[in-house]
Amino acid sequence: MRARALPVSSMFPMLGALLGCTDPGATEAPSPPSVIVIVLDGVRTDEFTSTTRSDVTGTTGEAFAAETWATVAPDATVVRAARNDGVTITAPAHLALVTGQVEAFANFPVDRAIGPGLYRPTLPTLFEAARDQLGLRAEEVLLLSNTELLAPLDRSLYPGAGRGAAADEVTDPETGLPVGEDGPVLEALLRRVETLPPRLAVVNLHDVDRAGHYGEPEDYAEGVVDVDEQLATFWEGVQKARPAYAESLLLVVIADHGRHRHDDDSGWRNHGDACTGCREVPLFVVGGGVDAGRVLDETVSLVDLAPALAAHLGVTLPWAEGLPSPALFPGFDQSARSGEVSVAADGALVATQGWLDDPEQRSEVRVGVGGEAGTTVSTAGVYAAEAPTVLDGATGGRVCFRELALEPVDGMLPWVARCLARTGDTWADMGFPDAEVAPFFAAALAERDGVTWAAWPANPRGGGEAGVDGRVGLAVAGWTEGVGWSDPVLAGAIFPTDAAIVATDTGLVAAFGTSFGDPDSRYTRHVRVVPVAITDGAAALGEETNLTLVGLLGEGARVERPALTRDGGVVRVAMLGITEAGVTVAASSSEDGGVTWSGAVALPEGGLPFPHLAPAWDSAEVVWGTLVGEEARLCRAAPGAAEARCVEVGSARLQRFVVADGVAIVVRDAGVGAWETATLSW
Fold first, then answer.
1. Strand, coil or helix: what is 94?
2. Structural contact between residues 344 and 389, judged by C-beta atoms closer than 8 angstroms
């Protein structure tokens, strides 16, 4: 039997102080548009929206979540094909909801005595857009939960942002820990609606997920029953207490991820991989012109919600990758994202990721040679193709990217890596060593002695935890025509990201972002470099070096996004160092093939460097993106230079860039949701 809920005012001080400020029975003036997103953490479609029988309950989701279907569904459009296409874990899934982006973001725990620290999103959140564009106070923008995992999502590291949500945990006053039930969270939210209605609230109900992982076998299903009843009570309470607010409200009820489907009794305990039960999530949308009492089968992704929520509030969220759904949100004034949002170039090859406007086929990868428009190299009709990298080597052209299909394979919906080799005008499949890759996979490519080498974050679940084969780290493997891929070597890591690789006289040097280890992983992000010796086509890892930038920036800097180059016998690395004061671009060098590294030096200031963009090398100079007022710029300087030389991008927002021989190809904002490529030079 579940314990009785604590009084809301005793466990949630900020709300307690606000109780009684408003008479809910008073005549209400019309309310401005508002948004509440309620996230049912870890609830499968099987127990909430599915029309097939659940292996846990023995009945359909509609029958099991009867209160929500009786109370909320008649006012809602219910989406049966909603999905999490990214990482099926709490923190990165919520990041997708509030930014409209899939970002490499770990589910690192938060030390309550320290707070989230610098491990936050790198691109603006919906919270910041609402506060900045609508002039809202902190208390009008709410991030509410009974888990510490969401604390870092209240604001981002983006230059000029930072006025984010009022983040609150509903805690037990005796233990200081999150309450173990979801009812008190919805009670607290309803009190807010009664006293100080939020214009934007994202609310996580964590108990079902917690019960699934750690409770008794019956606790997961009982948790779903509880939250079903509590949702119905909340929605009835909002309409009774604030009818004008309810009329202007866009209410979204969704799960961040689901759970496994297995034949055994405890399969539903876990999630985090690409299982269909993990990707498929229940979704109810109420208000904002959404059709009431409708069931929709169109594919809707977590990232699709962010631009729709922004449109209802009357703000723009240009970074959102989501595709507006006219079927779900008829009449919403949303600009469909368009253009090319990722670019890679080497020699005569230029690869781009282009947006498509079909919800069943969202993006494709094209490769052009010598300035031509480009040939589509991604699989025809595939749901998504993203993050191309290219190599124009002596043995021919190479391109690698990631793809996601809509059709399950053995109960999984995995991201897979595609690598292709160009001979003449033909691109041929190279295969890939890993059957599944992370939703943020991007390969770094290099050539040495006729062998194509790739480095990538081997992290198929995308959450830093070991995958099915137990491997997490930076993988390095070589591909030879007629032979295929060598066995990958793995540099172990905690949540590896941002691979870089360069060929040397003796082998290779690889670099990547990682952490030192639990429980302080979120506070110890740094760049790790490792030399790779090559003997008879086989790779062997040398001694690793961790670049923390302590000598340059002091303790606690977050170091990310390495870029490597070779200058004769010298290997150089550039990286970003993130502190409370902002972002610093730094560089270090090695004269012995990556074994020992010089003390890092900071590049001169050229504005506020972007935290989402890795620097790049152009000959012996570092190039990086910055923001100055309302203008994005590309700056360049050699390590040790006194000043940077900068050129304006022609937009306030810079999505990607590549540079060679003093010429840069940039992806810049061309209007809300629209991106374009342009060429700049110094």
1. helix
2. yes
Give the CA distances from residue 511 to residues 57, 275, 542, 563, in Å, rounded to whole numbers and listed in that order: 48, 30, 12, 8
pLDDT at 263: 54
pLDDT at 464: 64
| Phi, psi (deg, nearest 5) at residue 540 | -140, 135
Strand partners for 439: none
The helix-helix angle for 126-134 and 302-313 (nearest 10°) equals 10
Q: Are strands 654-660 and 294-296 parallel, antiparallel or unpaired?
A: unpaired
Residue 81 CB contacts under 8 Å (≥ 6 apart), including other chains: 280, 296, 297, 298, 299, 300
Nearest to 464 by CA among 287, 636, 272, 268: 272
Q: In which element (H, E) is residue 384 found? A: strand 384-393
Q: What is the pLDDT of residue 262?
A: 67
Helix (H) or strand (E) holding 202: strand 200-205
Give the span between the Cα atoms of 467 and 471, in whole angstroms: 6
- CA 514 – CA 551 distance, rounded (Å): 19
- pLDDT value at residue 11: 38
State the SS3 of 648-682: ECCCCCEEEEEEECCEEEEEEEEECCEEEEEEEEC
| Cβ(221)–Cβ(6) below 8 Å | no
Residues 178-209: pLDDT tens digits? Answer: 898 999 999 999 999 999 999 999 999 999 99
Angle, CA 487 vertex, CA 484 and CA 490 arms, to 5°: 135
Output the pLDDT for position 371. Answer: 75
Give me 294's structure tokens: 């409708």
CA distances from 662 to 219, 275, 617, 676 (A): 61, 45, 10, 20
By the 8 A CB rule, do 669 and 659 touch? no
**What is the structure's pLDDT at 471?**
67
CA neighbor of 459 nearest in space, from 611, 301, 273: 273
Q: Which two tokens stand for residue 680?
A: 């700049």
Segments of the chain with pLDDT less than 50: 1-25, 466-469
CA-to-CA separations, 261 to 50, 66, 271, 436, 555, in angstroms, rounded:
13, 22, 9, 19, 44
Are the CB atoms for 82 and 94 separated by under 8 Å? no
Q: Which residues on adjacent β-strands are paired with residue 167?
A: 143
Structure tokens at 670: 């061309």
Buried b (16+ CB within 10 A) or exposed e, 126-141: bbbbbbbebebeeebb
| Nearest-5° Cα angle at 632, 618 to 547 | 50
Q: Residue 255's closest CA among 279, 272, 239?
A: 279
| Sequence-ordered list of residues with C-beta below 8 angstroms from that of 1, at least 6 positions apart, any chain | none
* pLDDT for res 261: 87
Q: What is the pLDDT of residue 24?
A: 45
Please report the sign of the dihedral spanned by the C-alpha atoms of residue 72, residue 73, residue 75, residue 77. positive
Cis peptide preceding 519, ω within 30 of 0: yes
Q: What span, in angstroms and rounded, lies between the C-alpha atoms of 268 and 285?
A: 26
Of residues 590, 580, 579, 681, the one with CA closest to residue 639:
590
Cα angle at 617 between 613 and 623, to 5 degrees? 55
